[in-house]
Amino acid sequence: MTIQPSVTSAPLLTIEGLRGGYGRVEVLRGVDLHVNPGETVALLGSNGAGKSTLNNVMCGIYRAWAGKVLFDGSDLSGAHYTDVVKAGLIQVPEGRKIFPNLSVTENLALGSFVRARERRSENIDKVFTTFPRLKEREGQLAGTMSGGEQQMLAIGRGLMAEPRLLILDEPSLGLSPLLVEELFSLIEQLSATGLAVLLVEQNVGQSLEVADRAYVMENGGIRFSGTSDELLGSDELRQAYLGL
């Protein structure tokens, strides 16, 4: 089932016919999606559906076999990942990937290594305003913090690069239900600032509550797409992913 949403502005990110994989194993089988400026879009699907592979291909970590990645009108297909970062397409990776033996402030500073370096101090202050808990722990080694605090740090590090589109890859993974609620509340706050967000998640129900639109991946392709309300109203999706 594909429900085509209306598009009121030129997309910030457009993925066209993207194919890719590892070795001879094809994982992505012609993926099409787009994210408009200021939108929160959820990319949903079970483990192994191809979500993280799609992230890594669009961010230049792995090379696409075919298809296009267009960002604000520029073709980033095959671009080096540093050029993707310079363009403002920033990924907060699955598993946080913080530097455990560096302090909170040092981890944040590394987020501006490629982009927005000249505003590093100012942006650290902004991150501390968004995450007061990180301010309280600014000199603490990142590896000694809780999982929820480490996820805050990973998102804060992504914000240090002044993203035009922030990709959050499985941000709720391993968090307690209370911290998951806090996380999704934070995503709504980021969206309210006008930041475009691509939320990559297995948590279908809560993701649809904060997203404007969503895509559901299965076996390396898009099976469902539409507004959150449209997908929540789909009996097939509700039965397959929400158990309703």
Q: Number of helix segments?
A: 10
- Given helix and strand content, the structural type is alpha/beta
Trace the largest sheet across and list its strands: 6-7-8-3-9-10
Query: Alpha-carbon distance between the termini?
Result: 18 Å
Q: What's the CATH class label of the domain at 1-80 and 204-244? A: Alpha Beta
How does the major sheet shape up? 6 strands, mixed
CATH topology label of the domain at 1-80 and 204-244: Rossmann fold
Tell me the radius of gyration.
17 Å
Kindly state the percentage of residues in helix.
25-40%
Order of SSEs = EEEHEEHEHHHHEHEHEEHH
The CATH H-level superfamily of the domain at 1-80 and 204-244 is: P-loop containing nucleotide triphosphate hydrolases
Structure description:
α3 (104-110) packs parallel to α6. This protein has 244 residues and is α/β, with parallel strands linked by helices. Strands 6-7-8-3-9-10 form a 6-stranded mixed beta sheet, sandwiched between helices. Strands 2-1-4-5 form a 4-stranded antiparallel beta sheet, with helices on one face. The protein has a domain at 1-80 and 204-244: 3-Layer(aba) Sandwich (Rossmann fold). The model is unreliable at 1-8 (pLDDT under 50). The protein has 10 helices and 10 strands. A hairpin with a 2-residue loop joins β1 (13-22) and β2 (25-35). The longest helix is centred in the last third of the chain and has 16 residues, at 177-192. Helices cover 36% and strands 25% of the residues. It has helices at residues 51-58, 81-87, 104-110, 120-130, 132-136, 147-159, 177-192, 204-210, 228-232, 235-242, and strands at 13-22, 25-35, 40-44, 66-71, 74-75, 89-92, 165-169, 196-201, 213-218, 221-227.
